[in-house]
Amino acid sequence: MKPNRSFVALLAALSAGSSVPAGAVPVTVTPAPAARLVTPFPGVVPQPRAAQFPNGTLPLAGLGVRVVGGDPELAWAARDLRAEWQTRLGASLPDAAATGVSITVGTLADPELAARAQKAGLLTRDPEGYALWVDAGGAFVVGADPRGAYLGAQTLRQLLTPDGLRFARITDAPALRQRIAMIYLDSASQGVNDRLIPMLAALKFNAVLVMSDYVQWDTARAGGFAHPGGATRAEARRVADLARSHGLEVIPLIETLGHVGWMFHGGRNLDLRQDPDSQNPFAYDTLNPATYDRVILPILKEAVEVFRPKVIHLGHDEVRNRDRFPARENGRAVGFENLFVDDVLKLHGYLKSMNVGSMIWHDTAFSDSVVGSVPARLPRDLQVAYWAYAPGTTFPALKTVRDAGFPVLGASWSDPGNAEGFARAAAQGGASGMIQTRWTGYFGNPSVWDGNAEQGVAFVRAASAFWNPATPPLTDAAARYRDLYQPGPYRAQAGATVNLRPLVTRALADDDGNGWIGKGADIDLRNLRPGVQRLGEYTFDVSGAVMLRGSRASVKDLPQQAVIDLNRRATGLVFLQTTGWPAATPRERVGQYDIEYADGTRQTLPLEYGRHLRAWTDLQPTSMIPAPAWTGKTGDGLDVNLTALEWTNPRPDTVIRRVTLVSEGGNANPALLGLTLLGAP
Fold first, then answer.
1. How far apart are CA 489 and CA 135, in angstroms?
2. Global pTM?
3. pLDDT tens track for 121-137
4. Nearest partner of 10 among 613, 456, 598, judged by Cα
5. pLDDT by residue (tens digit) across 628-662?
């Protein structure tokens, strides 16, 4: 360990008459060769049907990739493997040499590979299935079909380590045929979907449900109701092509009958409202021919041209939840059931004339009031997506829809346990597959990373469950989501840990009611052990908590700020932090870090609840700006966690004199448990 220089610097500053704020405390700074380090996850997600991982690795030196066959999926597999090498290792993966050990990707259509898989005892002929083995003789991915080979390559990517490819013997195939994830098109589409689509492919989804209401269709532009926040037609086409190049079928979702506020944007088409008195129109008038001739059918035609889909999802959910339906006199004479059925038949027939299938949500057509009459009048090739968003294992409408003769898919959302239980029920109940929905707002694409990140985490949990419903629920889904969406290199970044002991205001263990948050030994952080340790991607020196003032009685007498004297250069700072209690509202400002440089200039890093930090008892990762760091339990069994916030220094060549943590004094009082410098000399 090198001696701390901060104390010497402080004495020099004092002797020179430099001003030092009251409470500034020198701290011990210790070099850390791996202050930040991304490491491969130990397991494979989704968990394969059958897998063994013998000891040993296949060395990377001289390794190249060989593709056997001309299917596009095989070329995509090689592309993704090369991208993994470049991202994780900063190295290229060349074509395999004519002789020697290699990575071989192909299918059972090749007799030699089929014989090798048979000899290895790993052959599978299940659709989308694959055999994979890595040993001293090389790495082999043999798909039952081209799609299986591509999916097998996604598993092989997860076996990459800085030292080589982990030995493995895997036979795998999905339990559910359709595994669909929902994405959005808006003006922020490119920055989000260019990350999401490769991630979804790596997780072995095979289709995307694309929310397309606000695409700037030519019809919408000509009619004056194109929304400026919507994606362009060109972007919609680009996203569709990108998805297909990652093996994902594209299923556009264009909400019709209900949820059609998109067609009334700018006050247009108000003559087509179902409810003439509605100030916020929700449904359209099915008895006005202009509804179809002017708006709906032209847009469906454009969607077919742009997306080239096999199926379009037509929505048809919650049709009567807002406006009166029917509201017009002629509609009341016809009756709701006839209006609903006639609309479905019209749209279904129009799409079928273009060789495109149709899908709807289940809730209106199979509601208790009409389930005995409406389904019997609908075409049996209509796919029905049954959504249910609560955890559980019993989903009775699966059987109701299936027994009525329709292909049925389950649709889950973000609550832990929802996708897992629903996927098991779907696999056991003969469903066609599952959809992982995402409801982040029509123009809320970036929130899948910052704002509604729990819905991004749910993609990882759902992928695991949809592929292999028998697998246990994931415990590291948030960390995997962060890594898949924003992958980092397997390369250590040097830095230094800061021992905060001189500033600690609360012990992690509360033996006498005066530690942590003052609730006693059963509700504290004693299971976070002190000392230098790796927590998530970072190394911290934990010695207690620099907890600041809050509105709760047990912390109202704590300091309002803490000043950490550093006098160091760094490319970044990482804060291991939490709050004692949750904030009242999301994005509430609970404090800030003031970073002061040696030249007297400052940077301020605000701390917004849910965005930059959250309470130790709050497990909902609404933002991925902070990284998962530590999870554990209290003495009474409560699940708790800490996150790490990395700040990139815009002036890495200038000495950081000090860092001051300031509390706003509210319910969510900040607590700093570790500080690490990145790139520090």
1. 24
2. 0.94
3. 999 999 999 999 999 99
4. 598
5. 999 999 999 999 999 999 999 999 999 999 999 99
Pairing, β 130-135 against β 138-143: antiparallel
Contact of 197 with 185, CB cutoff 8 Å: no
Q: CA-based angle 303:306:309, to the nearest 5?
A: 70
- Quick one: tokens of 74? 């095989």
* Runs of H (alpha helix) within 18-101: 72-89
Contacts of 230 (CB under 8 A, 6+ apart): 185, 186, 187, 213, 214, 215, 216, 220, 442, 443
CA angle 473, 475, 478 (to 5 degrees): 115
**pLDDT > 90 fraction of the chain, expressed in percent and rounded:** 95
At 406 the three-state DSSP class reads: coil
Structural element, H or E, at residue 674? strand 670-678
508 in Cβ contact with 1 (< 8 Å): no
Helix (H, G, I), strand (E, B) or coil at 155: helix
CA 530/CA 485 separation, integer angstroms: 31
Q: In angstroms, what CA-CA distances link 251 with 243, 313, 356, 448, 550?
A: 10, 7, 10, 20, 49
Give the C-alpha separation, 100 to 34, whole Å. Answer: 35
Contacts within 8 Å (CB) and 24+ apart, 93-101: 93/63, 93/64, 93/65, 94/64, 94/65, 95/64, 95/65, 95/66, 96/63, 96/64, 96/65, 96/66, 97/62, 97/64, 100/62, 101/58, 101/62, 101/63, 101/136, 101/137, 101/138
